[in-house]
Specification:
The protein has one domain: Trna Endonuclease, Chain: A, domain 1 (3-Layer(aba) Sandwich), CATH 3.40.1350.10. It has six helices and five strands; from the N terminus they run αβββαβαβααα. The two termini are 22 Å apart.
């Protein structure tokens, strides 16, 4: 693991996800803090253009789940998913420091078919892969003090391969 996720408080993980989404090209991002988020940690939009000259805005609800032991089960996401559906998003994204069980993925697939929305998942391995790909300092002020013990981190810093871990 690149980051010691068990040391990252949930609110800082949400702030990191907010920054990551900006790097991924999401627009109109809004971070909801506190217990009254109504099933949405972050809302954002993306734009696609399937037909040239006819851009389409996609409304996203993003759920950030920092879990440090075990996989995410249905009980970990069902309540926030149901609340999020009240906002009628086009897409639902879960970003997690863990993994979703097969049963959870199947549950999500069935629920999103019924709700007529698409869902995406960024699990731990993809999350850390994304961190390594960026050359701008995403999350550096938020997560720099949670670095793991991976030898790839100091080597990447020494050679300037990515700015995520730059400690300022």
């Amino acid at each position: 693991m690149l980051i010691e996720w068990n040391k990252v408080p949930p609110d800082e993980f949400e702030e990191f996800c907010f920054q990551l989404l900006g790097e991924l090209g999401f627009q109109n991002r809004k971070l909801y803090k506190g217990p009254g988020d109504k099933g949405r940690d972050i809302t954002a939009t993306t734009t696609t253009e399937d037909i040239p000259g006819k851009p389409q805005t996609i409304e996203w609800i993003i759920e950030c789940k920092r879990k440090t032991t075990g996989a995410l089960g249905v009980s970990d996401i069902s309540e926030s998913f149901e609340k999020a559906m009240a906002h009628s998003p086009d897409k639902y994204l879960i970003i997690t420091t863990s993994y979703l069980t097969v049963d959870t993925k199947d549950w999500l697939k069935n629920k999103t078919i019924r709700e007529r929305i698409n869902f995406e998942i960024i699990e731990l391995i993809e999350l850390e892969d994304l961190i390594m790909k960026f050359t701008t300092p995403i999350g550096s002020k938020i997560l720099s003090h949670y670095l793991g013990t991976s030898t790839a981190i100091p080597q990447a810093l020494a050679y300037g391969f990515f700015g995520f871990y730059a400690i300022t």
